[in-house]
Amino acid sequence: MTGNRMADHILIFLSLASALVLTGVFVYTDVLYQRPVIDDLEEKIKLLQDVKKEDLSRDGLKLEHLIVNVKSDTVRLRFLDTTMILIPFKPSYIEILEKQRSSIYDSIIGVASNTPAEELNSVSGKILFENRVKKKINDLVGADIIREIFFTTFVVQ
Questions:
Q1: Domain total in the chain
Q2: pTM, rounded to two decimals
């Protein structure tokens, strides 16, 4: 120890106090605290109410049903069936997107047709597809106006 009797008693007391606090935390979390039971039906109702409150179509440009042939290494024909909502950074950008609607469809078709179907089937591939479409549309418009793309339908056949 330190050789000083008072300092030794203080160090012993601090060690004992920290050990008791740590033991108390473990006892409380393992024995005394009971997590509330999650009611699946109640959570589903809350989720549905939140979805109804959030109307994405008024905050963005909804692109209608689009079916695009995609690259495939096999002889079998593969296609992407999608519907999406483009969410801009500002609501005023919707008018700009609306004027470029046909060019936006063309950009999406170009990106999708050059993306392999195997890539679109993976989560990382979908994220890459979304980023490529955002970049292509932003390049088309000449400014960064697309914040997010929500896919309401995304089926690769």
A1: 2
A2: 0.61
Contacts of 84 (CB under 8 A, 6+ apart): 62, 63, 66, 108, 149, 150, 151, 152
Q: Could you give the residue ranges of the DSSP H alpha helices within 37-90?
A: 40-53, 56-59
- Asked whether the beta carbons of 61 and 86 are under 8 A apart, the reply is yes
Q: Residue 88: what residue type? A: P
Single-letter amino acid, residue 112: A
Task: State whether 96 and 138 are in the same domain.
Answer: yes
**CB-based contact 70:115 (threshold 8 Å):** yes
Considering only CA atoms, give the Rg of the chain: 28
Measured CA distances, 67 to 6, 49, 114, 148 (Å): 81, 31, 14, 21
- If phi > 0 it is left, if psi is from -120 to 50 it is alpha, else beta; for residue 142 that is left
| Same-domain status, 12 and 60 | no
65 and 138, same domain (yes or no): yes
Residues 133 and 67 in one domain: yes
Tokens 């209608």 belong to 64
Quick: pLDDT tens for 29-84.
888 888 888 888 888 888 888 766 655 555 788 888 898 888 777 767 888 899 99
